[in-house]
Automatic annotation (TrEMBL):
Stored Pfam families: eIF-6
Chief location: cytoplasm
GO molecular function: ribosomal large subunit binding; translation initiation factor activity
Record gene name: EIF6
Protein location: Cytoplasm; Nucleus, Nucleolus
Keyword entries, A-Z: Cytoplasm, Initiation factor, Nucleus, Protein biosynthesis, Ribosome biogenesis
Family in the record: Belongs to the eIF-6 family.
Subunit structure: Monomer. Associates with the 60S ribosomal subunit. Interacts with RACK1. Interacts with DICER1, AGO2, TARBP2, MOV10 and RPL7A; they form a large RNA-induced silencing complex (RISC).
Protein name as it appears in the record: Eukaryotic translation initiation factor 6
One GO location term (cellular component): cytoplasm
SUPFAM superfamilies linked: Pentein
PANTHER family cross-referenced by the UniProt entry: TRANSLATION INITIATION FACTOR 6
UniProt organism field: Bubo bubo (Eurasian eagle-owl)
InterPro entries in the record: eIF6 (IPR002769)
GO biological processes: cytosolic ribosome assembly; ribosomal large subunit biogenesis
Length: 232
């Protein structure tokens, strides 16, 4: 897989999104491709991305996460990544929040305590926003440290406002041949993206462009991204 910057996989590629940020599925430091790590059995695992949020600084998991699951996740991640249980009324944390390494967008009704924990553990600036009048910002917006894609009905003015908050370029788009639920169909970091199998060549072109994936050469991975790849 390492020879591709944008790869089609199963349609529900986004189900690895939150885990992929911090280690459930992550790139190895070599050119051998993907390194997979088990990351527990939270709600039978397939809901992992719905109930967690993470970046290179930390990972937030639901309060219902057992001690055994927490330890399993801890053993799979670098020591520098903080893990924190969160008691949140809006329990599907991955659907109501989204972030990169610097900024997070959250549901307008997210608990204040959760917002404070999010800012502290993930080391991000938090903004309460909607995307195309949708409160599930984690479902209708995907962004990395390089760029992002938002709901196709997001107005130009809203795109400009969000881009200003996130400090990355944004574009309105779709995945999986027109799906508006962006996060359910793709997972991306600063150098690679995986998209649902139905994603068209036009959609892939937009994804490669906005996330600047063609600029992520092996030399960049070995230098600028080294801290994110190597356990310390």
């Amino acid at each position: 897989f390492q020879r591709f910057k944008c790869v089609k996989r199963r349609n529900e590629s986004g189900k690895a999104k939150r885990a992929g940020v911090v280690g459930s599925v992550c790139l190895s430091g070599s050119e051998d491709g993907l390194k997979t790590r088990p990351c527990g059995n939270i709600f039978f695992f397939y809901l992992f991305f719905n109930v967690t949020l993470g970046n290179r600084h930390g990972l937030l998991v639901p309060s219902s996460t057992t001690d055994q699951e927490l330890q399993h996740i801890r053993n799979s991640l670098p020591d520098s990544v903080r893990i924190q249980r969160v008691e949140e009324r809006l329990s599907a944390l991955g659907n109501v929040t989204t972030c990169n390494d610097y900024v997070a967008l959250v549901h307008p009704d997210l608990d204040r305590e959760t917002e404070e924990i999010l800012a502290d553990v993930l080391k991000v600036e938090v903004f309460r926003q909607t995307v195309a009048d949708q409160v599930l910002v984690g479902s209708y917006c995907v962004f990395s440290n390089q760029g992002g894609i938002v709901h196709p009905k997001t107005s130009i003015d809203d795109q400009d406002e969000l881009s200003s908050l996130l400090q990355v370029p944004l574009v309105a788009g779709t995945v999986n041949r027109g799906s508006e639920v962006i996060a359910a169909g793709m997972v991306v970091n600063d150098w690679c993206a995986f998209c649902g199998l139905d994603t068209t060549s036009t959609e892939l072109s937009v994804i490669e462009s906005i996330f600047r994936l063609n600029e992520a050469q092996p030399s960049t991975i070995a230098t600028n991204m080294r801290d994110s790849l190597i356990d310390r």
